[in-house]
Amino acid sequence: MSVCESLLSLSPYQGGKPISELQRELGLEHIVKLASNENPLGAGPKALEAIQQAATEVGRYPDGNGFELKQAISEYLSVSLEDITLGNGSNDILELLARAYLCSANDEVIFSQYAFVVYPLVTQALGAKAVVTPANEFGHDLDAMHEAISENTKLIFIANPNNPTGTLLSDDAIYAFLSKVSSSIIVVLDQAYFEYLDATDNAIQWLQEFDNLVITRTFSKAYGLAGLRVGYSISNHKIADYLNRIRQPFNVNHIAQSAAVAALSDEAFLVRSVAANKNGLLQLSQGFDKLGLSYIPSFANFVAVEVNDASSIYQKLLEKGFIVRPVEMEGYLRVSVGTRIENEEFLDAFKSIL
After folding, report:
1. Is-above-0.90 flag for pTM?
2. Among candidates 160, 157, 164, which has minimal Cα distance to 14?
3. How many CA atoms, within 13 angstroms, populate the side-chain half-sphere of residue 150?
4. Which domain-ending residue is among 266, 288, 308?
5. In the chain, N or C terminus with fewer CB closer than 10 Å?
6. Are residues 10 and 142 in the same domain?
7. Beta-strand pair 186-190/153-159
8. What is the pLDDT of residues 264-323, one digit of tens each?
9. What is the CA angle 205-206-207, rounded to 5?
10. pLDDT in tens, 241-261
């Protein structure tokens, strides 16, 4: 049997090591996971209540059109229902976009060095060509990305804030970039960490001007629903229609839809999550300063810190029960924001092995 040649050299996505796996490997009881950019507060009270109610209804299929969740997103962002596509996490949307617009081996996808690892995965899986532009101070170089555009360019991925670096592009810079890109090229603005910015939501207004813009967001981060896998995109209704034609039926389960609707209404929890993250970023940054370590200032819910022999330090941290994330940047580890106590315990363990 043979498979597509593009899959032969494709490595599957590797998430942060699960707590249960480390427990099995090392027999540790106290483990702190700071590897997957999860919300250390978990889900909010309204979402948890909705989950309990929805659990009594799991014998039935979910709403395949996700009407109630789309309605909630529509009202929250003041966008049309027809512009919304729901996904099994925002990763699902990224794959749908690749499937919809990458039709041949000549098709090209532009993304930045040190960008989200799913971008090259979906590109290679479909046999298209990845065009990777050099990073600018660990972030996107929009000028370089624009220069890389060719007649074969079909998709451009921009993560803002960026994962795994935490860097941020200004709205002015992104708007100027969009203004220069041909309307025939889909520009994906991946805003998985947008809620942590506590900023004006200008990107939604750009959808009225740029028919080729797709904004992706998720409930996995600030809303604390990572385990339920629910994300969405907002785009021109024509793009949304194409994505809805190829998405899996019932791709967002009933519990996830119910929890996401409730999460959108829990403004108090979102405020608390954003505040906890702000304090956690400060705590980690100050801790790294005291240890004399360089790090990339972050606008997300993690910090990439520079260390000598990252692989060795990663392993030593595992042995002490702390899971962080090795990243593609040589000499760096990515550390997610935990609770105040988890951050403190991590910094103490980190200091002991440096």
Report:
1. yes
2. 164
3. 10
4. 266
5. N
6. no
7. parallel
8. 999 999 999 999 999 999 999 999 999 999 999 999 999 999 999 999 999 999 999 999
9. 90
10. 999 999 998 999 999 999 999
